[in-house]
Amino acid sequence: MPAAAGAPTPVLDPELLLDFFARHGRDLPWRHPSAGPWAVLVSEFMLQQTPVRRVLPVHQEWLARWPTPADLAAEPAGEAVRAWGRLGYPRRALRLHAAATAIARDHGGRVPSTVPELLALPGVGEYTARAVAAFAFGAREPVVDTNVRRVLDRAVRGVDSIREPAVAADRRDLAALLPVEPARAARFSAAVMELGALVCTAAAPACDRCPLVARCRWYRAGRPAGTARRPVQTWHGSDRQLRGRMVAALRAERAGVAAAELLLLGDDRDQARRCLAALIADGLAEQDPDGRVDLPR
DNA sequence: AACACGTGGAT
DNA sequence: TATCCAAGTGT
């Protein structure tokens, strides 16, 4: 240990990470100084399990059409689902609409700035609440997504992780590494996230381009393989596939679709009935007395 | 805690 | 072609 310094340099050295972020961080719309909390919140919903490239155009359309939470809340939830396009997980559109409604009703139309208030919004979990608090309001909160979790696992813990939602221990560990100054801490989280997205990727990490390679415990251990993943559900013939087809049909038809027509989209009659009922139960579809189905009003 | 929940690009 | 997986949340 150096005689002059009190603590050893951490693996996730803020100096190295912030320099990396300044040089290589992507110029994304929700990172612009002009992007307000609403633009950040919308981006975080869209980015849940969805790549940046596909979010970009839809985010731009949403902000142009609904510049404030109240603008979105003033329209039927079905319009949010329709404008969601093919981003996937359309229930996110429903929850974002519900969040906008709660913001308009309970927060005077302003996106709240504290983690507890954000957590109370529909569709906002442990990750999104801290991402908005940090990136939109400059709060000193540990922001741990799948990228940050992977960097923590590899660089700090020396193991390769399977992809799972971050846990409290991950947030605690990152919190211990945050710079003291809040705005700098927020940039630090964004920098770790960016490193995971651009360099320390899941499948093909580019250690030769990593600013942390000299300290990385995983690299120094010879990049040991991670544990096996849980088996994934087959896609062909799944409920998810059929639900996707049904919602796509509803998005395309402003006048609604006959229930019988939706049921034809599946190979299995019982499965189709079950999926349609589930969509209605989830609030992604509504059925009128004639049996006509539409996106929610 | 384990699952369900969409989509499309990369390998 | 099959599998992985990308800024998670709710149950």
UniProtKB/TrEMBL annotation:
GO biological process assignments: base-excision repair; mismatch repair
Keywords from the UniProt entry: 4Fe-4S, DNA damage, DNA repair, Glycosidase, Hydrolase, Iron, Iron-sulfur, Metal-binding
Keyword Hydrolase assigned: yes
UniProt feature coiled coil, ranges: none
One Pfam family it belongs to: HhH-GPD
Keyword rRNA processing annotated: no
Ranges for domain HhH-GPD: 46-198
Recorded GO MF terms: 4 iron, 4 sulfur cluster binding; 8-oxo-7,8-dihydroguanine DNA N-glycosylase activity; adenine/guanine mispair binding; metal ion binding; oxidized purine DNA binding; purine-specific mismatch base pair DNA N-glycosylase activity
Required cofactor names: [4Fe-4S] cluster
SUPFAM superfamilies: DNA-glycosylase
Broad class of enzyme this protein falls into: hydrolase
Protein family according to the UniProt entry: Belongs to the Nth/MutY family.
UniProt protein name: Adenine DNA glycosylase
